[in-house]
Specification:
2 domains, about 60% helix, mainly alpha, about 150 residues
Amino acid sequence: MQELLNIKQTVDVQEYYDRFALAMHRVLIHNNHLDGVFFVSKFLQGLQLDIRAALVLHKPRTVDVALSLALLQDDVLETQSKSLNRRPHKDFNKYQGKQTPNPQPGVLDAPPEEAKTKFKDKLQTLRAQRHAQGLCMKCGQKYAYMNYSRRT
């Protein structure tokens, strides 16, 4: 009974379950009146905190269900730790001191005023082209002036 009460997860979930199941069967040989709730609660108490926290929410009724959930949670935690370790450490909490101003600010290394003048030139060219072809300035469709008069 002491072994069952003091068992803790040290390595992985499957190894912990194997030790727990052996201790559980030893206790059941001497006392078969213990119910599943007792064993589930002892199994959950022995799990690591990050795995236990997720399992408590599911309220497993048997040790087998608790084992399945624990294995799933262990896989999730392992996947998360691998994805976090893929990024180089230097990307996190990177200190960037005072940045020097960019000598050529603006879009595509053009100063902002030049970019504005290029846009205005393009806009004027587009308007002239549409006006010459008789197209609407907004949508480019054939322009037709319609006289909407009020009915009185």
